[in-house]
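Minutes, project huddle
Topic: does the predicted pose make sense with zinc ion bound?
PN asked that the exact inputs be recorded in the minutes so nobody has to dig through chat later. Recorded below.
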Amino acid sequence: MSTTYRIAPSILSADFARLGEEVRNVIAAGADWIHFDVMDNHYVPNLTIGPMVCAALKPHAGTAPIDVHLMVQPVDALAQAFADAGADCISFHPDASTHVHRSVQAIKARGCKAGLVFNPATPLDVLDWMIDDIDLILIMSVNPGFGGQGFIDSALRKIEQARSRIDACGRDIRLEVDGGIKPDNIARVAAAGADTFVAGSAIFGKPDYKGVIDSMRRALG
Ligand code: DX5
Ligand code: ZN
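Predicted holo structure (tokens), as shared on screen:
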């Protein structure tokens, strides 16, 4: 069975003064999803964009799903606001929610897909109890908070473990990786079992978005 890979450019590294145009351009360049990083200056030491920006960008994304990555604590109120703002998938860090199962159910009740995100030093144990309820697992290959950091190699082992759990459960769950992904390491990340790749600085840091996305697809084979 061949894997359908997805490239999800993170608009964290886009030009914030021209976000609508950036979203249109990166989709025209071949992006599959738009990765939307939400930081609250509390769970992570940075502050980005909220549900009003998501609602404003939704028409620019066309049919491309908006993949919201919440780096916020608490989770539930903002998750609901992003569901109302047109998010297609909402992921949060389980260590940021007191009641992880309730947060997942609330996201799905709003018609969105739900994902759990794992920091570089966070174990996958919560999946023992949550894998039957989620649509996506997001493995962080950098510490969350900033774009442009280097890929942490231990993420590869965690991706392998997450892939085994997905295969054992047999459900259709996306395995996404976020942080430090570039054309020259994406094949290793795919070989470990990932099928969805976030890339911020690698794409928006270059003038030719299509050139970078094409070279990522070539590396994926
Ligand atoms: C980091 C964010 C990432 C970030 C990735 O906290 O979750 O999505 O934008 O950026 P790069 O690809 O530059 O590592
Ligand atoms: Zn992210």
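Observations noted during the meeting:
- The pocket of zinc ion (ligand 2) is lined by residues 10, 35, 37, 69, 178, 198 (CB under 6 Å).
- The mean pLDDT is 98.
No decisions taken; revisit at the next huddle.
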